[in-house]
Amino acid sequence: MSVHAPASVGLVSPQTARFEEPLLLACGRTLAGFELVFETYGELNDARSNAVLICHALSGSHHAAGYHSDDDKKPGWWDECIGPGKPIDTNRFFVVCPNNLGGCHGSTGPTHTNPETGERWGPDFPPLRARDWVHSQARLADHLGIDCWAAVIGGSLGGMQAMRWALEYPDRVKHAVVIAAAMKLSAQNLAFNEIARQAIESDPDFHGGHYQAKEANPDAGLALARMVGHITYLSDNAMANKFGRELRSGSLERGTEDEAEFQVQSYLRYQGSRFSGTFDANTYILMTRALDYFDLAREYDNDPVKAFRHAQCSFMVLSFSTDWRFSPARSREIVDALIAADKPVSYVEIEADEGHDAFLMPIPRYLAAFSAYMQRVAREAG
Amino acid sequence: MRQDLTHILRWIEPGSRVLDLGCGDGGFLEQLERERQVRGLGLDVDDDNITAGIARGLNIIEQDMDESLANFPDQSFDTVVMAHALQVLHHPDKVLDEMLRIGRQCIVTFPNFAHWRCRLYLGTRGKMPVSKFLPYNWYDTPNIHFCTVNDFEALCADRGIRIVSRDTAGEGADQAWLARAWPNLFALTAIYRITR
């Protein structure tokens, strides 16, 4: 804590929970048992009524806030919003953030050993749906003695999980905070995810997903997948402001043959290579498929109003003006369905230049509206 | 509490579903929830108002009613309220139509531009009235569609809107009878309960 800002949760360490009871998955297969790695911040109150669940997005992890060591340069992925005095105020809430099942940060996933074969799961890990994450997180809630979440909160893919929670366990969620999400992906979104998977699968080091057995890693494919993704998480303006057409090296003067490199190229390469060093390719494929397959209302006759009638919680929906991956129009569809289903809902559209990534940024109006809502959640949690 | 809001409160059924268009900082909606146990939803476009309403624990939607209210299903609210917002709308007649589609009853309040002080100001000075009640200059006012009691009732007659009841707020409680007897001259605020 000492070296880090006072608004930080400080030093944190992950925990692991092991679940022996088999988990029946949406695909029809069963996981004999599984582990979830998670972090918690703040204290659970005596009534066990102040717990909030953070659902992470595509490339997130259980490390949402604070630092793992004094030497850590970067805090958890949502440190802007989780901590003392922040929107998800750790002075008031007991915050739980697990790594999703099928992830690559410690929870049971493709890099783990399949107990039935003694081999790594690799590409044979069962395909997962958002509902599988929700059911596995419900086991974690049981494990922690939490009957009902004061709130389930998530951005992007995390927002989809929050909505699924509201439908699968209506009596275990008081509030759902759905940020920069959608009830289903658009064709454009599906297309971007397909490019990402193709980039990985066409890397010769992918070996049909058995790269670990070959002691290889599809670094180039993963990096390319991340680069494409990264562009879609930013807005045109955000990229223009951050990089413009600035050169990192070389020159565009007449009379030089040197290749010029733009700043944005170098940035994307850096992001790509950093990602391929820390993220598992099979997990990336699994996560993007879960995103693709998500359709909130599919089993409710494709009627989101009918779907949301099952919810018993209040909703807070937030979107960002320049987010073209999960645009404000997608969030308004959620809001409209909730209004038609006569469910309590608030909606705020934040002016922000940062595109989809804005949900991770300290944008004053975003933090103010998010905090205002979470204060209500805290009051109701007692 | 503004006089028009006290009047509105009487017309709200306990436990009903209420949509407040242009809910401001949510003060009135909060009172409705407290005193009438309504299931309330507020609409506003101002950042600070929206945050203030959410901080009160209200359900607030950021939406411009002037653009569209098409996302609200027919007859989905018991009451739709619009207090002191009619005059700032670009399309007051269309918004009224939408209110009547969404709500089983609608309550509209607006400043009466035919109040005798307005008439006197314009008649003697020949300038757009500026007062404590209407504190803007003509060029910077958000009030772009002023109307009078007579104007509003003419619109209702024209559009087949039924006026269930009319109430008024005058300059003081002692002058309430004047505003009731000659609303177009003495009502500062006109308060209507309408249906279709």
Give a short synopsis of this structure.
Chain A is an alpha/beta fold and 382 residues long. Chain A is built from ten helices and 14 strands.
Structural overview:
The complex is a heterodimer of chains A (382) and B (196). Chain A has 382 residues and is α/β, with parallel strands linked by helices. Chain A contains ten helices and 14 strands. In chain A, helix 1 crosses helix 2 and helix 3 packs antiparallel against helix 4 (219-233). Chain A is globular and about 70 Å long. The model of chain A has no long low-confidence stretch (mean pLDDT 96). Chain B has 196 residues and is α/β, with parallel strands linked by helices. Chain B contains eight helices and seven strands. In chain B, helix 3 links the parallel strand 2 and strand 3 (60-62). The longest helix of chain B has 11 residues, at 92-102. The radius of gyration of chain B is 16 Å and the shape is globular. The A-B interface holds A 314, 316, 332, 335-336, 339-340, 342, 344-349, 365, 368-369, 372-373, 375-376, 379-380 and B 17, 39, 41, 47, 50-52, 54-55, 57-63, 71-73, 76.
Keywords:
heterodimer; A: 382 residues; alpha/beta; eight-stranded mixed beta sheet; two-stranded antiparallel sheet; B: 196 residues; seven-stranded mixed beta sheet; 8 helices; 7 strands; 35% helix
- Strand content of the residues of chain A, in percent? 15-25%
Shape label of chain B: globular
Query: Tell me, what's the shape of chain A?
Result: globular
H/E series of chain B = HEHEHEEHEHHEHHE
Average pLDDT reading of chain A: 96
Q: Determine Rg of chain B (CA atoms, Å).
A: 16 Å
State the share of residues found in helices of chain B, binned by percent. Answer: 25-40%
- Structure classification of chain A: alpha/beta
The chain-level structural class of chain B is alpha/beta
Cross-sheet strand order for the largest sheet of chain A: 1-4-8-5-9-10-13-14
Helix content of chain A: 25-40%
- What is the end-to-end distance of chain A? 28 Å
Most extensive chain interface and residues per partner: A-B, 23 and 20 residues
Question: What separation lies between the terminal Cα atoms of chain B?
Answer: 29 Å
